[in-house]
Each structure stands twice: as structure tokens, then as C-alpha cells.
Design goal:
Helix 1 links the parallel strand 3 and strand 4. By secondary structure, the protein is of the alpha+beta class. 22% of the residues are buried. The chain is elongated, with a radius of gyration of 34 Å. The chain folds into 3 domains: 91 residues, Ribosomal Protein S5, domain 2; 42 residues, no CATH class; 140 residues. The mean pLDDT is 84. It contains 9 helices and 6 strands.
């Protein structure tokens, strides 16, 4: 079992080319990848996306790819149109406010807006294997951290699941007495039926039987036990289980809700409320599972 949060980075340095990849991931219902590549390397994005899809099934994955050449220096060029526009606006502002205008070109060239960084000449196919190698290394580190986080999540979920099962075990001894009390209550309801017509007696008996069936929570207890057992099995699964665990949380929550509504005794109702609280804690943790 893996978490959806993690971080990984890798560096590939070969023949004067250095490629560094940093990958971070956080919770997301589906897989959502965002890749930041250097200028001129957008053609490599699809390959990066494929590597991510083969490694991760869920989560918001953010990738940053950095590249530089040994001994290379950044090349800049003067943006003439931008420089002329800035000069005109600055001098107009100075004139309106009785300030000294820009008189030396050095004053204008200090403004970063007048410079544009030139894109380096890049051979995409030459860089592709380096980027993919760095991506694979960073993804390996990411998966390692997600597995470590997943191991911690598993311990937390096992503890909460055991708490949920413990509440079910507390419920089971209360059921016979609850049925007996319910039976006594239904017998009292039958008193006086002889005064009704046969048709009304039949209808009342049907309603009493239906009420007795609805008030019995044995079916919910059985389902809770089954869902807990299936969730426990999923924790041992090596495949992504986040969606399956989320579904089981919904089922557990539904059964606890139904049990709380149907409960004819206050102690059973209180246990139902406790069960709902534990399931909510389980759901919060499951949101982190891939």
C-alpha cells in the first residue's frame, strides 16, 4: 500500500549536459500531472507523462525539469521595442512631475524589462534519454517515499479498523436482550386486537411484523463485520487500493447510520454513533492512499 504524498529527485550529468528532475506528489482523486520543462523541450512532455502514468495511478504530480550545459553562459539580447516604450513613458512621467528625465543609456539598461534571455540551441532527441533517465530516477525515489508513507498509513488504518471491529463486538452481546425487549413491546401491541375486525387484525399484524423486522439490527451487524474483513484484506494488497478503501468506507458509514436509526436501545445507539466517528477517521486517512 502506498501513500499519495512524496518527493523524489535525480540528476544525470553526461558529456557536458546536466539534467535534474524534481517530482512531488499530493492527494488527488485521479492522476493529474503537471510538468515544467525548459524552453524548447515541450516535445518531451508526452514521454514524461507516460513514465508517470506507468508509475503512479493517483495523485497530483508536479514535475520540474532543469537543464544546463557545463561552461555555458546565458545569452541576452536587447528588446528594442520594449526599451523605447519604457524610455518614452519614463520621460513623459518625469516631465509631468518636473523630474529629471533619463539622459544616459546606462540608466535605461539597468531595467531588467529591456532584456530578453535567448533560448539556447537544444537538440531534443539528444536530451530525451537524459531527461527520461532523470525522470525514472526521480520517480523511483518518489515511489520509495510513497511506500514508506504507505506503511505508516497502514498501521494507522489497522488501529482504526480494529477499533471499529471492537465496537461491533460490543454490540453483539446486546442484541439478544434488545430482541427480547422488542418482542415484549410487540406483544403488548397485540393486546386488544380481538376487538378489531379480521381485516384490521391482519393489517395491524403485518405492520407489527414489519416494524419488528426493521428494528432488528442483526443484518447491519453482519454487514459491518463483512466490510471490516474486506477492508483488512485490502490493506495487504500490493496494487493501488485507495478507491476500494474509499468505497468500503462509504459502505461502513451507511451501515452505521442505518444501525443508529433502527436501534431500539440507547446503548446500541451510542455504539452506533461511536462507530460512525471511527469510520470518519478511517475515511480521512484513506484520502491519502493511492
Amino acid at each position: 500500500m502506498k501513500s499519495m504524498t512524496g518527493f523524489g529527485q535525480a540528476l544525470v550529468d553526461r558529456e557536458g549536459l546536466r539534467v535534474q528532475v524534481e517530482i512531488s506528489s499530493v492527494n488527488r482523486k485521479n492522476l493529474d500531472s503537471q510538468i515544467s520543462l525548459p524552453k524548447g523541450l515541450s516535445a518531451l512532455e508526452s514521454g514524461c507523462q507516460s513514465l508517470i502514468a506507468r508509475t503512479c495511478s493517483r495523485g497530483r504530480i508536479q514535475v520540474r525539469v532543469l537543464m544546463d550545459r557545463a561552461g555555458a553562459t546565458s545569452a541576452w539580447e536587447l528588446n528594442r521595442d520594449q526599451a523605447e516604450a519604457l524610455l518614452e513613458q519614463a520621460n513623459r512621467f518625469a516631465q509631468a512631475h518636473h523630474l529629471k528625465p533619463i539622459e544616459a543609456v546606462s540608466e535605461l539598461l539597468r531595467l531588467p524589462q529591456v532584456w530578453s534571455e535567448m533560448e539556447p540551441n537544444t537538440d531534443t532527441e539528444q536530451l530525451r534519454p537524459l531527461v527520461e533517465e532523470a525522470m525514472s530516477g526521480a520517480l523511483k525515489e518518489l515511489v520509495k517515499m510513497r511506500e514508506q508513507e504507505g506503511a505508516h498509513l497502514r498501521q494507522v488504518l489497522e488501529g482504526l479498523l480494529e477499533e471499529c471491529r471492537g465496537i461491533v463486538e460490543e454490540l453483539i452481546p446486546l442484541l439478544p436482550a434488545a430482541r427480547e425487549e422488542l418482542g415484549t413491546k410487540l406483544k403488548r401491541s397485540v393486546v386488544g386486537l380481538g376487538e378489531l375486525s379480521s381485516e384490521m387484525q391482519s393489517r395491524v399484524l403485518q405492520e407489527i411484523a414489519l416494524y419488528g423486522e426493521k428494528a432488528d439490527v442483526q443484518e447491519e451487524v453482519d454487514r459491518l463485520q463483512g466490510h471490516c474483513e474486506r477492508m483488512r484484506e485490502k490493506l495487504d494488497d500490493s496494487e493501488p487500493v485507495g478507491r476500494a478503501l474509499d468505497f468500503l468506507c462509504q459502505e461502513l458509514s451507511r451501515e452505521w447510520n442505518t444501525l443508529s436509526v433502527k436501534a431500539s436501545r440507547a446503548d446500541i445507539n451510542q455504539l452506533g454513533l461511536r462507530g460512525k466517528e471511527v469510520v470518519e477517521k478511517i475515511r480521512e486517512q484513506v484520502q491519502n492512499v493511492e
